[in-house]
Amino acid sequence: MSGSISIIGIGPGTLEWMAPGSAQALDRADVILGYHSYLQQIASLRPDIPREGSGMRHEVERAQRAIELAGKGKRVAVVSGGDAGIYGMAGLIFEILGGFPDGHLIQVEVLPGITALTAAAALLGAPLMTDFAAISLSDYLIPLDTILNRLDAAIRGDFVICLYNPRSHQRTKPFDCACKKLLDLCGENRPVGVVQAAFRAGQQVYCTVLKDLPCLQIGMDCILVVGNTSTRILNGKMVTSRGYRINCKEQAKSEL
Ligand code: SAH
């Protein structure tokens, strides 16, 4: 008999931001697989269930192991940070399973989580009120030219742009190229929000403009939200206008 795989998004940080349904799915697991720091994030949940941790860039091995264990009848939980379907483990597991003739015998479910962009948007104010694009600046799997072409298209389409995986110690070039393109095409006063470690210890949130972006402080625990032409900073919050016709001065006068 074949087992099952639950692919679980555990949210951006502390456990209160993980969906209750995801915690219930963990309860049903015989074994939990994940990247070490995500297992750390859920360390206090069901410590009695065995865990198998693995490092970054071991996603293929992790997915293969999940399939192997499920093939032996185990109920396997695979955890991913944020939402498992957004730069997470979900796609890889389906892709590998698709190569097995008996792949359909293993039941797979994906449980959604709060992804970094919604976590960041909530902390920044309301920057995603209109169309937006998510772009990962990691050139580990996608060539830099492709990333920059997508960024170019998103800027020209006047999308609000969320930048995942912005910059690491070893990988600074994509971020430098992206900043140059943003400055060239959006201008130096375009609002940008930076959220570091959302809903985790050490959380930092700031709204600034492109020319003042503190580039050296940007790391892999940050997500950036670059506003579009309708984004402003109002009372310290980043707000993208959706187009409602409002007249704040008239409103204030009538309330006096
Ligand atoms: N599946 C995850 C994304 C994984 S890619 C999700 O849905 O959120 C990893 C990138 O996500 C990080 O480099 C960072 O850009 C972003 N990220 C994830 N969690 C974050 C957090 N708590 N605060 C800020 N950015 C975060």
Summarize the structure in words:
The chain is 31% helix and 25% strand. The protein contains eight helices and 13 strands. Strand 12 and strand 13 form a beta hairpin. Helix 3 crosses helix 4 (90-98) and helix 6 (144-156) runs parallel beside helix 7. It is globular, with a radius of gyration of 21 Å. S-adenosyl-L-homocysteine is lined by residues 12-13, 80-83, 86-88, 115-116, 119, 164-166, 195, 197-200, 220-223.
Keywords:
single chain, 256 residues, five-stranded parallel β-sheet, five-stranded mixed β-sheet, 8 helices, globular, binds S-adenosyl-L-homocysteine
Separation, N- and C-terminal Cα atoms: 72 Å
Given the C-alpha coordinates, what overall shape results?
globular
| Strand ordering within the main sheet | 3-2-4-1-5
Order of helices and strands: EHEHEHEHEHEEHEHEEEEEH
Low-confidence spans: none
Which percent range fits the helix content?
A: 25-40%
Percentage of residues in DSSP E strands: 15-25%
Main structural class? alpha/beta
Specify Rg, calculated over alpha carbons.
Answer: 21 Å
Short note summarizing the structure:
The chain is α/β, with parallel strands linked by helices and 256 residues long.
Blueprint of the fold:
Blueprint: E1 4-9, H1 20-27, E2 31-35, H2 36-41, E3 51-54, H3 59-71, E4 75-80, H4 90-98, E5 107-111, H5 116-124, E6 125-126, E7 132-136, H6 144-156, E8 160-164, H7 173-186, E9 191-196, E10 204-209, E11 222-226, E12 231-234, E13 237-240, H8 248-255
Residues 12-13, 80-83, 86-88, 115-116, 119, 164-166, 195, 197-200, 220-223 line the site of S-adenosyl-L-homocysteine.
